[in-house]
Write a structure and sequence with these properties.
Elements lengths: L1 H26 L5 H8 L2 H9 L14 H6 L4 H9 L14 H8 L2 H9 L14 H7 L3 H13 L9 H4 L21 E7 L12 H14 L4 E6 L5 H15 L5 E7 L2 E5 L7 E5 L9 H4 L1 E2 H10 L4 E9 L19 H5 L4 E8 L7 E2 L2 E2 H13 L7 E3 H15 L7 E7 L4 E3 L3
Helix pairs in contact: 3-5, 3-17, 6-7, 6-8, 7-9, 8-9, 11-16, 16-17
């Protein structure tokens, strides 16, 4: 009897493997125009189609999305672009296969790493009842296995999620506010704006400082209550840490919005170990070239700032390029069709971020202005108000700037956006 059961299980596995093989084969011949371009790795075409309103989550007859089709082919630049434009990293095809499963089975470590960094689920099972790491191990993709195993060690097991709040260290106590009931809207809106051209040790820039001043001016147009500014020689490491860690903390209260904008150099270091994790830094005006760990400001420290601030919503906009930011997907986010959407999303805590580009990409300028910041200011001026409700959300900003900057730069720069914590949504109210 046990032999018969085992035989039936093996037969089911064989059929499941066939289904997975057919699904991967179908990815090479996507039936939607956006899916076809994504599978080919045509970044410029994908960016243009997203700009024209293409849906990054629309599947074909088999439920295969453009993200599936780029992940299985290892098209990292397209994967970044799609996720930045709002593609769901955990959307499954009709057989239950996620983009991470496809990337892992096909042996694309950088795509797998990126999807994991974006919060892709590690426990989902494919049509053959195997997780992403099991697929990678079966195909002997050892680099992918190392990446996924490292991610599994970092994340708590599913059964621990409910008690996780009790285990959070004191320095991360702000996470306990995730489920707190807040009032809609904001009591105050406060911004810290930093721009550096005249570096002491790094190459001097042209547009970073004026870009920062333009952002500060736009936030003032939106009637922010306070805009705290640091430029050039004043933007030392100590001054930035004092501004972000002391002055903002002293001013912000629990029902406020805090925006942090930085324009300047950024650097990424690769940490030792099999998984080769990345750590991003912003470079202050006095930052060193060869000792960024000592003289830069780690993105992890900025994330720690969110734990110190009592503000309900925190938004980082970084006109520089980083890796290893730890974005997560918006689990449980309220759909925009929900009545009183703005009222609801501003009741929940949110920490969100948008950056000018990905790892290894320069933050490009044109006519002395950053491509990213130019589009960011357009977004904050109302161009990103996609549903014309008089508000611009962080998600709408990401959806607006990502394909446009990619197209503006000839696919050399793709902004990244995502969530560092919470389930709410940063909201900018446009002036009447």
């Amino acid at each position: 009897m046990s032999f018969q059961r085992a035989g039936r299980k093996r037969a089911a596995k064989c059929f499941g493997l066939l289904f997975l093989f057919l699904a991967i084969a179908a990815c090479a011949h996507g039936s939607t125009p956006l899916g076809n371009a994504a599978g080919r790795g045509d970044v410029a075409r994908v960016a243009h189609m997203l700009t024209e309103g293409g849906d990054p989550n629309k599947g074909d007859k088999d439920g295969l999305t453009p993200l599936h089709q780029s992940a299985v082919k290892g098209q990292l630049a397209v994967v970044r672009l799609l996720v930045g434009a709002g593609a769901d990293v955990d959307q499954a095809d009709y057989d239950g296969n996620t983009p991470l499963i496809f990337a892992s089975d096909s042996g694309h470590p950088e795509v797998a790493r990126f999807l994991v960094d974006q919060g892709a689920g590690l426990a989902f099972e494919s049509a053959v009842e195997m997780t992403a790491v099991q697929h990678a191990r079966k195909k002997h993709h050892q680099e992918v296995v190392a990446i996924l195993q490292a991610a599994l060690r970092r994340r708590p097991p599913p059964q621990q999620e409910q008690s996780r709040a009790q285990e959070i260290p004191a320095e991360q106590i702000s996470e306990l506010r995730l489920n707190k009931s807040y009032s809609p809207g904001y009591n105050r809106r406060i911004a810290a704006v930093i721009g550096i051209n005249q570096y002491a040790n790094w190459p001097k820039l042209v547009g970073a400082e004026p870009d920062a001043r333009r952002v500060a001016a736009q936030l003032k147009k939106l009637d922010f209550d306070a805009v705290l500014e640091l430029y050039d020689k004043d933007a030392t490491r100590d001054a930035i840490l004092k501004l972000l860690g002391s002055e903002l903390t002293a001013q912000a209260t629990e029902n406020d919005l805090v925006v942090v904008y930085f324009a300047g150099h950024g650097q990424t270091e690769t940490l030792p170990g099999r998984a080769r994790e990345r750590r991003g830094y912003i470079v202050p005006v006095d930052g060193g070239v060869d000792n960024v760990f000592q003289t830069g400001i780690a993105m992890s420290d900025l994330r720690g700032l969110a734990d110190r601030l009592p503000a309900k919503h925190i938004y980082f906009a970084m006109d520089s390029c980083y890796s290893g930011l730890g974005f997560t997907r918006g689990i449980g986010m309220i759909k925009k069709s929900t009545p009183q959407y703005i009222d609801k999303v501003t009741r929940k805590r949110a920490v969100q971020m948008v950056t000018a580009g990905g790892e290894g990409e320069e933050a490009l300028e044109r006519d002395g202005r950053g491509l990213f910041t130019t589009r960011l200011i357009e977004a904050l001026s109302g161009e990103a108000d996609l549903n014309t409700d008089g508000y611009v959300t962080a998600s709408e900003i990401g959806t607006y700037v990502t394909p446009r900057v990619t197209e503006d730069s000839g696919a050399k720069q793709t902004p990244q956006s995502g969530r560092l914590g919470g389930e709410g949504e940063v909201v900018f109210k446009l002036r009447d």
